[in-house]
Amino acid sequence: MPRFSCRSLRPDLLLLVAAFFALETDFKAALVGAFVLGALRDLGSGGPLGVSSLLLCPVVAGAVMLRESIRGSWGVRLAIAALLIVSFSLGENALLLLTGAPSLRFLLRQAAGQSVFTLALVPLLFPVLKRGERGKAQGAGSLKRSATAPPQRRGRPMDGKL
After folding, report:
1. Structural domain includes residue 1
2. Which residue, among 22, 131, 130, has the nearest Cα to 76 in the 3D structure?
3. From the CA atom positions of the chain, what is the Rg in Å?
4. Which has the least CB within 10 A, 13, 29, 81, 107?
5. Residue 121 belongs to what H/E stretch?
């Protein structure tokens, strides 16, 4: 999988998808998505399984509750996505500090840089994910219509002659 990077900073695409779930789906779907994405993140990183899920689920739940209490425009949603991304990055780096990481200054700089880099991709990625979600919903609607529509005959109409 190709990676975008700038020096040692990389955007966190799984975190972007979790932010999308938090802003565009209901509470239950957002939490399930956060748990699955956290597990995928742990599987890919080789770290202890479940740590990212334990960090990501409360952050996503808070973002969903904030979204439901503040109905707003694109700017408000972007601010909620920024809060989600920054809080997860800070939590993840705080865990690294507990495990003996180099220094607090380095980790804060790393968290800020990664958050800004990831947040810069929100305006690019969210419309793509919304388009995929809309296409999925339209596909489900056409399946529902085809299941309830009477069957159509194919070929020549039968007039009773052989």
Report:
1. no
2. 22
3. 22
4. 29
5. none
Weakly modelled stretches of the chain, pLDDT under 50: 1-5, 142-147
107 lies in some domain:
yes
Two structure tokens written together for 34: 């956060």
3-state secondary structure 91-105: HHHHHHHHCCCCCHH
Distance CA 146, CA 23 (A): 31
Amino acid 129: pLDDT:
82
Can you tell me the distance from the alpha carbon of 121 to that of 4, in angstroms, rounded to the nearest whole number?
A: 11
Give the residue ranges of DSSP H helices in the chain.
13-24, 27-45, 51-69, 74-98, 104-120, 122-148
| pLDDT value for 6 | 55
Q: Is residue 88 part of a domain?
A: yes
Instruction: Tell me how far apart the alpha carbons of residues 48 and 60 are, in angstroms, rounded to a whole number.
Output: 20
Give the structural domain span for 34: 13-129
Instruction: Give the pLDDT of residue 37.
Output: 93
Closest CA to 37 of 138, 131, 129, 141: 129
In a domain, 78, yes or no: yes
For residue 112, the tally of other CB atoms under 10 A from its CB is 15
